[in-house]
């Protein structure tokens, strides 16, 4: 019997702006199982990044319940939620979001900074993580000394360094050319095959072929799932 | 890797901004250190100078009788002295329990004489002691000058045995000029010099050598009073007076508090000015630090969002900001201490018109660092809180 990694129940998110209310997420209910890889597609403003931030324990919903691995994350205190993000989630942000004054190794090590592991252990874990993304030879380089694809790999290494069960990726190939983007998607596919649950927001239909399931979002609602996407994605994952 | 390394790396990356921030601190700390150095040096030097310039105490014969005034001080009328001060009392002063404080001992004999056709007051002094103690005395005219020579104040130190120095108003009253002869108690004296106007009782006096005046007044060995200058900065003048009275039981000692009060007032005024100016500079420095820190936090919004998103607690963000502030402030305190000390060392003598050097006061190093750190930490609270409370979702533009 499969276990649920992400459980969303009737999630709503309303933003107030200049006295008006904007409903960014409208009653979304969704389950994602452990080990799944899911892409969320939709146009700009469809609410997919907001949904990702809610699942990422960064943005409390206006209503509804979110459980990740059985934990109701918004019942946790701010500090416990920070700990939760560190232990359970690996973020891959849009445009890499590396810290410019830290080397590839230090960037990869960043989520371990506030843990109680020894310096040696932290370093070994970061080296291992960079090895997994194929960047062992460029550990001492600063982000501006790396190509876009390499920076994305460092961002992925940072996301997986402390072996979180869930990876959240926001447009991970948005700043990359097609070839590099495909390489990065293959890397995500490989990580998923190793057991990680991956939830990816993208507006590139090509990326969906690397993911097990695709969810469409429109105007803050889930509009259709993978089975309905034959016309959207021509080249399904083998 | 730890939070300290993140803070250190950030400082390295933002060198210009951090140097600017540190300069704000350096200016503030160096102003305070500079002023403290100068004020301290003023305490030392002004104290020394006043000690050199004037008497701290006046020794008078113990007496019961008529009184007359000399230089704001009441002296005994000589006719009714019960006790007498003599030249033999001088060594007792140097042997007293307060001998280590004694700098200048200036004995004098005051008496009324017939000068020309008038009565006048004459003061017998030991020229060197008297005029070193009172360097504000200067000559407006001097006898026996060679062509090309000008009046020399040091000439006062060597009044000839048969010479007199006349106060400005006494010269007018007696109608004498330099080089002229003046008959005093039937004995001729040459007017060696005429003093510049002082605006005090001294303008009406005639000065001559002590032994000559003792002989002139027929009071050998006798003294009217002894003026004492003490070596001290914050003179325990009451203690000195008691020590002198013990050594000279035939005398009474009047401590002169005016000099000490004047010194305290002058330094107090400069200190108030210094502290006020330092306070203003520190306030400006604090504003510079505050605005620079705030701007740094604003620039790092996204970075802080990343930290928060990947699991940094708010307290971790606070630690990073305070570590950065701490490192800059310690460095700022160090540089501020040395720049303030050097500024005081080189500019202080001109600013405060000090003659001596202003030494570096290493005891101010720790307070300087503490001042810099305390100030920076205080004004960093708001930027740090702002950074820690950044909404990571907003910082990463998820919203």
TrEMBL record, chain A:
Keyword Nucleotidyltransferase: no
Family annotation (InterPro entries): AAA+_ATPase, ABC_transporter-like_ATP-bd, ABC_transpr_LolD-like, MacB-like_ATP-bd, P-loop_NTPase
Entry superkingdom: Bacteria
SUPFAM superfamilies: P-loop containing nucleoside triphosphate hydrolases
Keywords: ATP-binding, Nucleotide-binding, Transport
This protein's GO CC annotations: membrane protein complex; plasma membrane
An example Gene Ontology molecular-function term: ATP hydrolysis activity
Domain ABC transporter: 6-234
Statement: the UniProt record of this protein carries the keyword Transport: yes
Record-given protein name: Putative ABC transport system ATP-binding protein
Organism (species): Alkaliphilus peptidifermentans DSM 18978
Organism ancestry: Bacteria, Bacillati, Bacillota, Clostridia, Peptostreptococcales
Automatic annotation (TrEMBL), chain B:
ABC3 transporter permease C-terminal domain: residues covered: 276-392
Keywords: Cell membrane, Membrane, Transmembrane, Transmembrane helix
Chain segments annotated as transmembrane: 20-39, 272-297, 317-344, 364-382
GO function terms (MF aspect): transmembrane transporter activity
Lineage top rank: taxon: Bacteria
Subcellular localization(s) per the UniProt record: Cell membrane
Domain MacB-like periplasmic core: 21-222
Record's bilayer topology term: Multi-pass membrane protein
Family, similarity comment: Belongs to the ABC-4 integral membrane protein family.
Name by which UniProt lists this protein: Putative ABC transport system permease protein
Organism: Alkaliphilus peptidifermentans DSM 18978
